[in-house]
Write a structure and sequence with these properties.
Layout lengths: L23 E3 L2 E3 L3 H20 L2 H13 L3 H20 L1 H8 L1 H21 L3 H16 L3 H8 L7 H30 L1 H24 L36 H58 L6 H22 L4 H13 L3 H13 L2 H19 L2 H15 L8 H20 L13
Antiparallel strand pairs: 1-2
Helix pairs in contact: 1-6, 1-7, 1-8, 1-9, 2-3, 3-6, 3-14, 4-5, 5-6, 5-9, 7-8, 7-14, 8-9, 8-10, 8-13, 10-11, 10-12, 10-13, 10-14, 10-15, 10-16, 11-12, 11-13, 11-16, 13-14
């Protein structure tokens, strides 16, 4: 018999970190909540702050700057476009920044940049200072927008990524509900400059805490696997095609995906930018604000339903095409409302609103299903950057259509038929782009990490 003292068996360290059901196990302490869902909750907060300051804020900044400085609407509108355009350039390079500096560090610096840039909007005394501030705020918005949400969620989920992304992206919709009135109230209480300082500081503190606690960790560092559960069926075969280097720009799937996302968001953001003012003649300002809020509620419901109910092997391009058709029907309801038919106006709000969230969350899911894991990390930032650079011009383009319409006819109030017709036509083009790029293989989509 060996003289070696008896030692009780200790399971390997990696085994102690996860259970078959995806819960975390450390010693004798067990929890049934996969850590990735805590990351989703943190990204929900990130999206709420990012969209609240970087996306829903600029329309309010535009109005406030114009009122306080007396600058022309065209100058301030061009500043908003510059904010989105410069952000698009940064989004396209996010993968490189993440590789060199890490997600946590990039996100923390981005929160500071966004806060400083927005404060620059408020403290600008000359137009050139405003444009300089928009470049800074655009950089920060890029690190807290759609590409960032996808990059943080992707390592934690593969099979249940649609549900995870839809839950995280709902923070963007909540931002529209919370931050629009919050900005108005805070500016009214403290003035524009100090409102940006107060909200910016809160954002920085919250993002730094989330980045250190959640965004700095990867599943493999914690001994976990994506989705928190080992596959129970044979995994899908790897996606054969890869698009290294410039081949991506010649790939039909990439081109049609970028076109579909850009067209659908161009129509959506162009119409939403003018929707409030189109509702006011029939509803008044208070009710119009409430009704516009219904669009956000419909967006949350639509995104959540698709994220949780879409089958794992479903053709995601069909869902995107159907989402465009849903918004086309909403635009037609606005058209036939003729500015004063309340039931049709409410129907338009619900139908168009139900598709708002999916225009952002579905394209990254299509990329996951159609491209190799290595390509997805490039494809998602690029389609987000292309769409952002495109929709930056949407408010101005729809404003131009609206101005021409009023100038060339006797139309007034909330009736703007060509605005709604153009929105429907552009959404139709987006649906065609999504459907043209469908994979011809039979048997559903293949999903890789």
């Amino acid at each position: 018999m060996s003289d070696t003292p008896f030692r009780p068996y200790a399971p390997p360290k990696a085994w102690t970190h996860f259970k078959p059901n995806g819960g975390v196990m450390q010693g004798s302490k067990k929890t049934d909540i996969f850590y990735g869902w805590r990351v989703v909750a943190a990204v929900f907060v990130l999206a709420t702050l990012g969209w609240g300051v970087g996306f829903y804020g600029p329309p309010i900044y535009l109005h406030t700057v114009q009122e306080t400085r007396g600058w022309s609407l065209s100058v301030v509108s061009m500043a908003v476009t510059a904010h989105y355009l410069f952000g698009a350039l940064v989004v396209a390079n996010l993968p490189k920044l993440y590789r060199h500096f890490g997600v946590s560090r990039v996100t923390k610096v981005g929160s500071i940049t966004l806060a400083v840039g927005v404060a620059g909007w408020a403290f600008a005394k000359e137009p050139w200072q405003l444009f300089a501030a928009t470049l800074v705020s655009g950089v920060g918005w890029a690190t807290m927008g759609a590409a960032a949400v996808n990059a943080i969620i992707a390592p934690w989920f593969v099979r249940t990524r649609p549900a995870a992304l839809s839950s995280a992206y709902n923070g963007a919709s909540i931002a529209g509900v919370v931050f629009s009135p919050l900005w108005v109230a805070t500016i009214g209480l403290f003035g524009f400059p100090w409102a940006t300082v107060a909200i910016g500081l809160v954002m920085i503190v919250v993002i730094w805490i989330l980045a250190d606690v959640y965004f700095a960790k990867m599943p493999e560092q914690m001994g976990l696997i994506p989705d928190g559960v080992a596959p129970i069926s044979r995994p899908a075969p790897p996606i054969e095609r890869s698009c290294p280097g410039n081949q991506l720009w010649r790939d039909r799937r990439f081109i049609t995906l970028a076109a579909g996302m850009s067209l659908s968001l161009f129509a959506q953001i162009g119409l939403l930018a003018h929707l409030f003012s189109l509702l006011v003649p029939a509803l008044g300002e208070q009710l119009a604000g409430f009704v516009a809020g219904l669009a956000t509620a419909a967006a949350i419901a639509g995104r959540t339903l698709v994220g949780w109910l879409m089958p794992a092997g479903a053709d995601r391009r069909l869902f995107s095409g159907g989402n465009c058709i849903l918004q086309i029907v909403g635009s037609l309801a606005f058209l036939f409302a003729a500015g004063d038919n309340l039931p049709l106006l409410f129907l338009g709000i619900l139908l168009f609103g139900a598709g708002i969230g999916n225009n952002t969350s579905l394209p990254p899911l299509i990329a996951q299903a159609e491209f190799s894991k290595e390509d997805v990390s490039r494809v998602v930032p690029l389609i987000v950057a292309i769409s952002q650079g495109t929709y930056a011009f949407a408010p101005a383009a729809f404003g131009f259509i609206r101005a021409l319409e009023y100038r060339s006819s006797s139309i007034s109030g909330g009736a703007a038929p060509w605005v709604f017709i153009c929105a429907a036509l552009i959404q139709a083009a987006g649906a065609v782009a999504f459907l043209v790029g469908r994979d011809e293989r039979v048997g559903g989509t293949k999903i890789e990490g």
